[in-house]
Amino acid sequence: MEIVFAIAVGVTFGSGIWLILRPRTFQLITGLLLMSYAVNLFIFGMGRLWVDRPPITPNASIDPLQFADPLPQGLVLTAIVIGFATTALYLVMMIGARGLTGSDHVDGEEPRE
Amino acid sequence: MLLASLILVPFAGSLLAALMPENARNREAWLAFAVTACGLLVAGLLYPAVSAGKVLREEFAWLPSHGLDLVLRVDGLAWVFTMLVLVIGLLVVLYARYYMSPKDPVPRFFSFLLAFMGSMLGVVLSGNLVQLVVFWELTSLTSFLLIGYWHHRADARRGARMAFTVTATGGLCLLAGVLVLGHIVGSYDLDEVLAAGDRIRAHELYRVALVLIALGALTKSAQFPFHFWLPHAMAAPTPVSSYLHSATMVKAGVFLLVRLWPALAGTAEWNWIIGGAGVCTLLIGAFIAIFQHDLKGLLAYSTISHLGLITVLIGIGTPLAIVAAIFHILNHATFKASLFMTTGIIDHETGTRDLRVLRGLRHQLPVTAALAIVSSAAMAGVPLLNGFLSKEMFFAETALVGGDEHWWMSIAAVAMGMFSVAYSLRFISIFFGKPSVAFPREPHEPPRSMRFPVELLVVVCLVVGIMPSVSIGPILHLAVTATLGANTPEYDLAPWHGFNLPLLMSVIALSGGVVLYVVLRRYFNLQQREQVPLIYRFNGAQAYESSMMFLTRSAQWLLQHLGTARLQPQLLMMMLAMLVTPPLLVGTPRVWTEIPLHEPDPLFAGIWVIGCACALAGAWMAKYHRLAALILIGGTGIVTAATFLWLSAPDLALTQLMVETVTTVLILLGLRWLPPRIEPKVLHLTIPRSVWMRRSRDMVVAVVGGLAMALLTYAVLVHPAPATIADFFLLRALSEGGGSNVVNVLLVDFRSFDTLGEITVLSVVALTVYALLRRFRPAADSASVPAQQRNTADPASKQTAGEQANSGYLLVAGIYLRMLLPFIGVIAAYFFMRGHNLPGGGFVAGLIFAVAILVQYMLAGTVWVESHLQLRPHRWLGFGLLLACTTGLGAWAFGHPFLTTHTAHVDWPLLGELHLPSAFVFDLGVFAVVVGTTMLMLVALAHQSLRARRLPGDGAQDYGIADGRDI
Q1: Which of B18, B232, B381, B852 could be joined to B391 by an S-S link, Cβ 3.0–4.6 Å?
Q2: Is A104 within 8 Å of B675 when comparing Cβ atoms?
Q3: What is the CATH number of the domain that holds A24?
Q4: The domain containing residue A90 runs over which residues?
């Protein structure tokens, strides 16, 4: 499980890096999307991997060691929602830059070469 | 509050003055007058206590945890300076009323002047050194504004900038010095610092503190080598010069030195640093003053020289020298303020301040001439005037301290005396000789009220000069005893001490000055000289400008060579830094297995084969096939959501799934405006080598980055988890939070402040998106209308979007989704209700509800949806934030901290007992904000498509329709 998880994070992150280094705004947005998946998974992994142990407590007297760590989950939930908001903002900037400059290059102008 | 009112009233007055109408010259003057008079009244009330030798203190808690309190403190010295600031201030206000032209915007002038007065009083009354520095910098700031009052003039802007740069930099040095001093003493309280003199002088950091504080004081008091800013500050209106640059602001530096004399003085370093700077300033200032052609320039250099004199006295540091220094501070303020005011009158009446043009003015301005001659005589140190007394004390001190060994001190003192006589003669020469006919204006005596301040000051010069012990004696004694305490020496203020060395020096200075002036005038063409002889090369202002230029150039060079406005190199640097920094900091992580790992599940591996393939393919396709790339990346998102579900995080899975949906739809909406991109293969283009190089480089970075991330993740996962605060949340979620879904309880209860911040960010982003797109017209559509929709055989091709929704395209799907809307609403409510105990909650429910609306937009079109549904996303946002905040504030009503949750147990008739925690209401706020945010973004984007369809011709009408609607 751990090895699959690690490879998944790595591949997603690497694809994200490749995309954010590209010159077009759409590539940048998709790159950020992929990177945010990877980073969210990574933070989530800080609580280690638990199968079938969701942090839902049936009663007050429980053994905390039998449940997944709820804290990284709470943090990642926040991160997902904030990531959604920033993606929307990037999207508007993408549309705006295209409308104002006529180009979809990240610098707002086509390269000179 | 009495002391605090001294500072607060001027600032309040400043605010009031700023709000008055442009032409309210009289009202402004009255206000300023009343404020200053009020200050004088308060100061008068303090006199009995202060004269009894008491130190009055008022304290207000500021940062008690750091030992910082706002302390206002009045002793004799502070009281005398307060009176100086207020009395001269009162006269300047009176004078300014007549000086300022009706065309000048007076509210700004009086507002700044009162703010300056407040800051200056703050400096004088501060009983805490850090607080003193704050007011100190405020005086720099307000003086910047006052010098640059006529900001349409280039010289005013330049002078203001120069004065501010020099004095504010000095202020920063002072702050550093004060911090060092506070470190040595262990307190910033002035009383404690003054009492710790021996400890400070013995400390190893003493020199550091002294140099830094000296830098602050010397820049403020325009001492060599920082004297150059003062002449340039003469671009200020004359009332400002006579207030700031004779009596108050420049005196702040010497005031500070006197103030800290008990703590810092008495060492060789003090003598050499302070005294050395003073001697240089005194000679250079007096010498340059002789060769000025501008009346105010002459006075500025003379001020520099007199401040040098005071600094030398403080540098000498004997108790008698301090008496002389304080005495001269007061004397200089009176005669120099009156001289500046006279200059203003002359400027006002003749239209010029040029010494080469002005002459014979005693015929037209006889009274002003008489007044000016008396004050210049005081400046020159003529007997029976106040300047003479303090200058003779200065001579006596130099002769006494210098003795036989440092005889040059007496020579320097006499030389300075000669120079000051020479420039005073130069000043009064404008009143003699044949009347000039070349004035821009025919001069007359000024209005009586404008001359009154000058008259008063001149009378003070005379009274103090003739009867010092009766007039100034008690006040001076107050300041001296407050500073020197037990060291207060015997001194005698009489104008006549018999024939002695100081008198001889005075006689030499007076007669030598007259001879010097005559010689310079006769043989050295004084009236027309353009340069100051000998030292014209040492131009401080030039050095200042050069260093500023150098700084600007260096910054430009650095920006050009190290900075870039292009995004890709910046991101590349960030990625490289991210790769290189962690290994450098912690070394490579060790990868080994300590805990039993989970057996890899083939299905889990299988879904990630798909997920990784989607990510890689998405990265590959993103340039030429955007839609495909978007779908593929959505695939990775779904696999991520599945992973959360698999690994015991159902809440995350739900949220990720809904966010994924909404994000994809929003980006889909934006795709139509991106320019088409055709593969080079199709266009038969060859890709240049440099592009391949760049791509290979990026590929290497991406591969290495991915590998590093994978390794890091693996290294973390195979280590046992350290003890975390997870147990706390797991054990208390049900018993104290009243919910069994720990993640939800975490969000709306334990960490609800965090969530409140988050929903605020969401609202801000949504409003930003809305604001950015409100008046925006997107680029032309990249794709043309499809062939089916152009076919005229189809009646729907002629219909509007709204009509199509009723009887056009996608009718089945549209009606089906319309019927589904209430059901999705119920599902959203269900997920919301169960959130506290099972996966769900405000975030998820909000997103589900938003998707329900989203699909309506997609199938029925913007026009149809908005004519049938009143969405009002702004209200959702506002309502949600309000609900969340009031829930949090509600806890205050019961005496609990902000956002404390309370669980109520309610018995319902049919449902039985229900837990109703207040976190539930908070979650409702979260729900409303998420719905509002998503809808606001969606609506903003959807309206773009409405606008894009229109032809360019009917633009104005189009805006009206699109933006007038309440979306």
Answers
A1: B381
A2: yes
A3: 1.10.287
A4: 2-50+68-101
Collapsed DSSP state (helix, strand, coil) of residue B347: helix
Residue among B575, B616, B717, B939 with most chain A CBs within 10 A, to mutate: B717
Residue A110 located in a structural domain = no
Q: What is the DSSP letter of B181?
A: H
Residue located via tokens 């920006």 = B559
Q: What number of other Cβ atoms are within 10 A of residue B888's Cβ?
A: 21
Segment (H or E) for B73: strand B68-74
Question: Which structure tokens are listed for B938?
Answer: 């969606």
B584-637: pLDDT as tens digits: 887 766 666 667 777 888 999 999 999 999 999 999 999 889 999 999 999 999
C-alpha closest to that of B903 among B737, B776, B784, B747:
B737
The helix/strand/coil state of B269 is: helix
Chain B hits for A33, Cβ within 8 Å? 633, 637, 663
Residue of A nearest to B738 (CA): A60
**pLDDT score of B948:** 62
pLDDT digits (tens, 9 = 90+) for B137-187: 999 999 999 999 998 999 999 999 999 999 999 999 999 999 999 999 988
The number of domains in chain A is 1
Output the average pLDDT for chain B: 87
The domain locations on chain B are 2-532, 742-967
Q: Is the pLDDT of residue B673 over 50?
A: yes
Give the mean pLDDT of B458-463: 92
For residue A60, pLDDT beyond 80:
no
Q: Is there a domain that residue A58 lies in?
A: no
What the block records as the tokens of B679 is: 């593969």
Nearest to B706 among A17, A58, A70 (CB): A17
As a whole number of angstroms, the distance between CA B722 and CA A47 comes to 9
Is the Cβ of A108 closer than 8 Å to some Cβ of chain B? Answer: no
**Residue B82 structure tokens:** 């307060």
Q: Is the pLDDT of residue B961 over 70?
A: no
Of B457, B454, B458, B456, the residue nearest B445 (C-alpha): B454
Dihedrals φ, ψ of B498, to 5°? Answer: 85, 180
What is the Cα gyration radius of chain A? 19
A94 CB neighbours in chain B (<8 A) are 670, 674
Can you give the pLDDT at residue B632?
95
Q: Does A49 touch chain B (CB under 8 A)?
A: yes
Which pLDDT does position A26 carry in this prediction? 93
